[in-house]
Amino acid sequence: xxxxxxxxxxxxxxxxxxxxxxxxxxxxxxxxxxxxxxxxxxxxxxxxxxxxxxxxxxxxxxxxxxxxxxxxxxxxxxxxxxxxxxxxxxxxxxxxxxxxxxxxxxxxxxxxxxxxxxxxxxxxxxxxxxxxxxxxxxxxxxxxxxxxxxxxxxxxxxxxxxxxxxxx
Length: 168
What we know:
- The protein is mostly helical and about 170 residues long.
- It has helices spanning about 5, 10-45, 55-75, 80-85, 90-125, 135-165.
- It is a multi-pass membrane protein.
- This is TRAP transporter small permease protein.
């Protein structure tokens, strides 16, 4: 686990703890999606399925998946290709982590920009789900929050990797 999560002092501690809480909230959303689907399956056996369950599943899973991104960044839990770094020196591993943090930061910024534009488009054209008529743009709000937290997490890991690269 990354040392960023274990920081309890300075500005990084509260951010890391908030990111952990956000990921847990994403887990709760995912659990609620599972429970809703179980209810819908059991209800459909008795002629009373949950109307619009697939719409809520799409939104809930997207919200949960994005909620996990900042936590994966701050804990170093993203997918890695260890076969390339298994014999690398700590200096090279720190350099790779620095590069990965820079790429994560750039990608998170790109996603915020495009997802925000997408949210505005969904809101402007008043797109809604078919059955429940839930506005699509509502799902973008927690997703954009997750992306903003991913930017914060990537800045924390960037700082930590830069310190390791410089031998601090």
